[in-house]
Sequence to fold (467 residues):
Amino acid sequence: MGRSRKQIDELIDEIQSFAELTHHFDRPFRTFSSGIKTRLGISVATAFKPDLLLIDEVLGVGDVSFREKSQNRVKDLIKTSKIGNWIAKGMSNFDKTTNDFSSITHAMHVDAHLVGKYFQKVTLRNPNASLIDALVVDAELDENSYIKNIILEDGQKIEGDLFIDCSGLSRLLMKKMPGNDWVSYMDHLNLNSAMPFILKYEDGEFPEPYTTAWAQNAGWMWQIPLLDRKGCGYVYDDAYITEEEAQAEIEMRLGRKITPAKTIKFTTGRQESAWINNCVTIGLSSAFLEPLEATSIHSTVVQIKNLAFDYVRDNIDDTLNQGSMNIYNQRTRKMFDDLRDFITMHYCGGRTDTAFWRNIKDNVPKPEFVSNLIEMSKTRMPTHHDFPTYYGSAGWPLYSYVMEGINLINKDVTDKELELKIPNVDNLKDVVQNDYVAYHTEWYEELQNHYTWEEMITIFREERDTQ
Fold:
């Protein structure tokens, strides 16, 4: 776990008491039932007051009193970060004076259908934009393998200079390009199936202000709260579970029936070149890792901004500069390879309770950067200098949350680095502690002019209903 014996000894009584194992604590661990092991696991995990705590189904085990006690301890822990602080207080980051969000960095939970309609409305304000709502079935190439036109289902042909392939996993246009090689990530990210479904809110239930990623027997489940429903899904490896077994597992976890949409099969990887001739892939047609951390939405935004602001010129000849295309492809390859490493790190916690997780631990190779980072962290705290820092990269702040949550940060190393002697600083630990107290005071003052979370959701629902 990355804790010294001294650290464990200091909390051993608290761990025993919280787990309610005082009379069984000296028994060999292998003799404990799965329920007792889980009690002990959550007692140990929460005793150390981590900066980030990743919890899956453990809060659903044990008797009622133990579940309630565990949930209360987790609620206490999440108060120790800025966002966790306002979540724990039932507040929002929506300011009453400005009717806008405060400066907290946050992501949005969006209804994809409504966002698509909004983009359409905004785009069509431009007199140079037009909308053709039709199915693209093919494309014609010229003698140099450049796209001349796309062909619609009704036979109509649409000509153009530059074509963006947004056809998703089918890669309708890019697959016609020469050299459209696919680089697989399946050696490192071998989940291959997703079972999406919707959960309606029960009476009086409000959406949570966070996404839930919940580890399961053969993968993980997402829950994304929207104003009126949750978008959910189970991402899994079909070598370890069938569709029927996956649905049964989720229904057991949730305690309610679900109606899955069509199960999606996928392979993880990327295009070797996202831009070939006059065809550029964006989004799923360019690469796919898996839904964890919403990398597809993130990388789509990054690709669009990079292409539009850095590479598209005011005429097609300058736009199709081969040097520009090569550099764009290099940037895109690096972004996806680095995101692959970031997602892979999530699976490095050493879980071994099912065949799927044992295979991840024992047989799935780690990318070189991930292996080096884990090894380095045994003797030195990573810093932002160790990570890619270009636009679109996942840097040290994101890695730190994941690595701390799965116990890859060595506590003895962090303690030692806090003893670092700095000129004009007597005690670095005291400085950190004082800063932390100051931050809490600042957070509290900031919240005084914010709506509660339920007030904000009510405002948003009313605003939507008036549109």
